Amino acid sequence: MASFSATSKALNFALLSSLLWISMVSLSVSSHQFQVGGEKGWVKPAGNKTKSYNAWAAGNRFRVGDTILFKYKKDSVLVVHSADYKSCNLSNPISKFQGGSTVFQLDRPGFFYFVSGQPGHCKSGQKLIIRVMHHSAIIEPPASAPSPTAGGGTGGGSGGGEGWDSDNWGPPGLSSTNKLVVASYFTTALEGVFVILYLFM
């Protein structure tokens, strides 16, 4: 009987260790790196495209832990306060980066302000505001149910029905962030069960 209890504890410990490792790996993989400006990188906008970087940022969703990559030549990246961003004041940066390639980690929710360190570039539109979402702000409400078709059915067909995204599991509005949060809660609950089993066996 004693050897069965020792074997059971060893098995529970191995399962718990595996789950903890999987949780750490899934959380470390959950962050994403965005290249500022896409392929063109961090350059002075041409012509009247003074809002191109903020349009790029508006098309992305940033979370705590994500990183942004600045690629540039003969330039720099300044992290500044909001007032300095608005006035293109380069004399009081929070941080300054040079070297052609800068990775900046978004370590908190809220706003981050970036400008070029080259005189005149900020006023030409080489500036960027990144809004990092708080977890509670990321969760989107579920989409409304699709309306029935004229025949009283729901549309049917082999495509899986309206209202469902065939590329992702779950209804629309369930982003990859939400899926990660749900998976993280599930994994944590499962780990708790194994801890309890380990302690009482």
UniProtKB/TrEMBL annotation:
Matching PROSITE patterns: PHYTOCYANIN
Phytocyanin domain mapped to chain residues: 32-134
A GO CC term assigned to this protein in UniProt: side of membrane
Gene3D superfamilies hit by this protein: Cupredoxins - blue copper proteins (2.60.40.420)
Intracellular or extracellular location(s): Cell membrane
Compositional bias per record (Gly residues), positions renumbered to this chain: 150-163
CDD domains: OsENODL1_like (cd11019)
Domain of life: Eukaryota
Keywords: Cell membrane, Disulfide bond, Glycoprotein, GPI-anchor, Lipoprotein, Membrane, Signal, Transmembrane, Transmembrane helix
Pfam family, one: Cu_bind_like
Membrane-protein topology: Lipid-anchor; GPI-anchor
Transmembrane spans: 180-200
Span list, region Disordered: 142-169
InterPro entries the UniProt entry points to: Cupredoxin, ENL_dom, Phytocyanin-like, Phytocyanin_dom
Signal peptide: 1-31
Gene Ontology molecular function: electron transfer activity
Family statement: Belongs to the early nodulin-like (ENODL) family.
Protein name: Phytocyanin domain-containing protein
